[in-house]
Amino acid sequence: MNGCETTERWLTYTHEEEYEPVTERAVKHVRKFLGQRLRALRKQRALSQERLGKGSGLSGKFIGEVERGEKSISIDSLYRVSVALEVPLRDLTDVGDKHSTVPTEEAEKIFALVSGRRRQEDVRKAYNVLRAMFSRAS
């Protein structure tokens, strides 16, 4: 195998297996998580959406839309919100010790396989297989 073939195999591997596109479902999970964190921090400080909006140069309506996961927020606006809340930016984005709520690539594939089935029996079989696999791993 020459150097060119090795490079081609490496590029194919990294492009196809390591850097898969982000799914819309994962993006929605991230938006929802971020909105929940924003709402929790805002309520801890007893701020209304309007007041937080004024403090960050955004509208209260937009703050509400972000909290409900309806709108995405730019990193610039997220930074302004963190300043208005008087918290580090990481407090808005860090999941801490919790497991991520964003689906992994494997979970996305399993969901796609199972949800594509029409018969309840097939879903039940898939569930039983997964349960058996995880009980052996424990």
Record field, number of beta strands: 0
CATH homology superfamily name of the largest domain: lambda repressor-like DNA-binding domains
CATH topology tier name of the largest domain: 434 Repressor (Amino-terminal Domain)
Total count of domains = 2
Tell the overall outline. elongated
Describe the structure.
With 138 residues, the protein is an all-alpha fold. The protein has two domains: 91 residues, Orthogonal Bundle (434 Repressor (Amino-terminal Domain)); 33 residues, no CATH class. 71% of the residues lie in helices and 0% in strands. The chain has eight helices and no strands. α2 packs across α4. The protein is elongated and about 55 Å long.
Task: List descriptors.
138 residues, single chain, 434 Repressor (Amino-terminal Domain), mainly alpha, 0% strand
Topology:
Layout: H1 3-18, H2 24-44, H3 49-56, H4 60-67, H5 75-85, H6 89-93, H7 105-115, H8 120-137
Short note summarizing the structure:
This protein has 138 residues and is mostly helical. Helix content is 71%, strand content 0%. It is elongated.
